[in-house]
Amino acid sequence: MGSLSFDYSGETVIVTGGSSGIGRATALAFGRSGANVVVADVREKPKDPHASVPTHRVIREGGGEAEYVECDVADPDDVAAVVEAARELGGVDVMVNNAGLFVGESLVDLSPENLDRIVDVNVKGTFYGTQAAARDMRERDEGGVVLNTASISSRFAQHGQVQYDATKAAIAMITRGAALELAPDIRVNAVAPGQIATEFSEGGTESTQDRAGDEGFVKPVPLDRAGFPEDLAPAFCYLASEEASYVTGELLYVDGGWGAF
Fold it and tell me: Which domain holds residue 253?
């Protein structure tokens, strides 16, 4: 089968949550495509035990341009600082709001503190990132692209994670609402992953890559495997490209067919 290639030379891409998992794979993909990449995360070191070199350093070692900015996306001042760092590279052209948090607790047991935290990171973080990027693009009188990380949980409820499902549904509406408000100069879309083998839970020690062959993890996926971060990165690159110039307000599901039944 054929393959796609992208050229982002001279463009600046911010990836929140870019130190690990989907964010890392996406940042590396943009870096290989020639973009100046700003990796924004609360931690520089990857969570994935199979990776040791920080994302921005991998890009630099490959001949690309990248930097790391410490950022808690729940803090609008932190997000604004990341966008300001992108200004030094010419201003943000693509904003990938990928940082996210999973809290798997039952509805009756979920604490107010954990509810606040997951809403702060997933919902407010996506909103602040979209807002800050749009302001920068408008102030520079430039178009641009905002991409959010949604989920199959944006549409489908799953047992034991009502709080997570609710935040991902909110991201879907931020995506659609922002697409309406920011058109025609700024496009806003989201990638909606399915069951992706990556370290995700806050404070977790087991990488779900180790579960990729587990029958309970992959059984409901028609393509008969868990996804990997590298399966998501091309979707972000496509939606940010001119090839997707007539696409806005959409969620692109990359789930191995999970949502087909």
Answer: 12-260
